[in-house]
Structures are given as structure tokens and as C-alpha cells.
Amino acid sequence: MNINAVNEVLPQPVVDNIHFELDDVRANLPFLVNLSFGQRKKAFKMSHKRYNFVSVAIDAAKIEPQAVPSWIDVAAIQNDFELSNQLFAIENKLESLLLDIKDTRMQIGAEALKSASDIYVHVNKAKDRIAGLEGIYDNLKKAFPGRGKGKVKNE
After folding, report:
1. Residue 154 has pLDDT above 70, yes or no
2. For 133, which of 35, 61, 92, 127 could close a Cys bridge (C-beta 3.0–4.6 Å)?
């Protein structure tokens, strides 16, 4: 039984607009960086405890400037901290949207694959009775290499 939970197609102008808007988001973040795997692995990671650590360190630097080494730019740390918080909020929204997109794509992909499998099973059963189905069957069975003829399982 097919669910067909989503039966939609986005009009091309909507697809184009989504791409435009995503490009616009990227254009508004010209400072984004791409880290290598090694850089990601070696980088300090901002956790909840470390978030509080940075916040307390910034407050301490503002209260007692002599506690700050000469090579530290407190304003730069504040900017990094604020930007980190801003990007975290954006990241959360994007991750939520991405998860919804992935789940929807998985659902509709599963529905399409199940229906295509049902067509394959039907064509396999009818190919000897209906002219022209043998070629369709031969083309469809390429998706199941290594399976013997007539051994398709309909789940």
C-alpha cells in the first residue's frame, strides 16, 4: 500500500526563488570559512560549559583590563563571541529546515521506489502475456543485478 504523504511539485519559479534566497543568505555571510578535516579535528569546540567560560573571561577582561595579556584584543573576542551566538541561532534554523527537507525527500523517495517496485513486479508477471513488456522488464531488471529471473520480492 502506498501512502503518498506528499503529492506536490514545486513550480520552477519557486525553485528558482529558493535558490536565489539561499544565494542571498550566503552573500550576506561573506566571512564564512571552509575548514579542512584536520582543522575541524584540532579546533577548540564551543560547548555549553565553554560558552560560559568565554562569557566569564570577557566579563573579567572588561572589569580588570590588567588581567588581559597584551596580545589579546578584547573587542575582537567580544565580536567573535557575538558572531558565534548569531551563527548558532542561524545554524539551528537551517538544521531544522534541512532535517525537514531530508525527511520529506526520504518519504517521497520511499514512496516512489515502492511504486516503481510494484510496477516492476507487475511487469515481471505480465511480460509473457502482454506484448512489449519484455523490453520494459529487461530495462527495469537492471536495477536488481545478481537476482535471478522471477525472484523479485514484493514487500
Report:
1. no
2. 127
**pLDDT in the model for residue 49:** 85
The Cα 86–Cα 148 span in angstroms is 56
The answer to whether the pTM exceeds 0.85 is: no
Instruction: With H, G, I as helix, E, B as strand and everything else as coil, classify residue 145.
Output: coil
Round to the nearest angstrom and report the end-to-end CA distance of the chain. Answer: 10
User: Taking residues 141-149, what's their average pLDDT?
Assistant: 76
- CA 80, CA 55: separation in Å to the nearest integer? 11
Q: Which residues contact 60 (CB under 8 A, 6 or more apart)?
A: 67
Nearest to 19 by CA among 9, 31, 7, 10: 10
CA torsion 28-99-83-64 (nearest 10°) is 180
> Has residue 155 got a pLDDT over 70?
no
Q: Tell me what the mean pLDDT of segment 105-121 comes to.
A: 94
Q: Which three cell numbers stand for residue 95?
A: 538544521
